[in-house]
Amino acid sequence: MPKRAAPAKRQRRERGSLNPEDIIQGAFELAEVVSIDGLSMPMLGRHLDVGVTSIYWYFRKKDDLLNAMTDRALSRYAFAAPFVEADHWRETLRNHARTMRETFLGNPILADLILIRSALSRDAARQGAQGIERAIATLVKAGFTVDAAFDLYSAINLHVRGSVVLQRLYDKNKEIEAGASAYYDDITIEPETTPLLAEAMAKGRRSGAPDDHNFEYGLDCILDHAGRLLDPGN
């Protein structure tokens, strides 16, 4: 595993000047270098130039700190994805999905905190539910039934998150093991035995890869199906 660059050394902190905001900000700075998985309380103490007991005074365990970081990340990126508009539900929902994916792919820490971790704080879970509620309400206003609106946004959400998580896990594996590859890169293509695969993949397609082409194709399928629900005769 390639050695990461050490975080920048801070100036020595005055006694009693530490506060939760400083700890959270320092944790984000450190995670940029060592990742969420590599972040530890002793390491954070050294980064902040304080004793680790000063951090435990505010955050009793790492999960408490990660919850606080998740809440901060959600508040920072809550409005990154544009709202869905009832009058233009298809175009705005597509833009919403694309922006969510781009935001997560562009910020690995955000992806790890919100998508990879198995638990969210109560505040984070509440924010997530409120965002979904707004999207479903807009789709109902556009003419979908509650069930159809729920299923549509759930499918979009799953499509975005699944694509991001698959890419993120691939990236994390490459960080751990130099030269690591994903299953979709290791498919053996032989024109004699798999001519159709060979034809498609010669054009740059990758089976099951979380790339732009596959993401857009899946998004089109979801939106096309949703359109037929509103206009069955089309």
Instruction: Give the averaged pLDDT, no decimals.
Output: 86
Which percent band covers the strand fraction?
A: under 5%
CATH superfamily of the largest domain: Tetracycline Repressor, domain 2
**SSE run:** HHHHHHHHHH
CATH architecture of the largest domain: Orthogonal Bundle
Shape: flat
Major sheet size, sense and barrel closure: none
Let me know the number of strands: 0
Cα radius of gyration in angstroms? 22 Å
Protein name: TetR/AcrR family transcriptional regulator C-terminal domain-containing protein
DNA-binding region: 40-59
Domain HTH tetR-type: 17-77
Keywords: DNA-binding, Transcription, Transcription regulation
What tags apply to this protein structure?
234 residues; mainly alpha; Arc Repressor Mutant, subunit A; Tetracycline Repressor, domain 2; 2 domains; 10 helices; 65% helix; 0% strand; transcription regulation; TetR/AcrR family transcriptional regulator C-terminal domain-containing protein; HTH-type_TetR-like_transc_reg; HTH_TetR
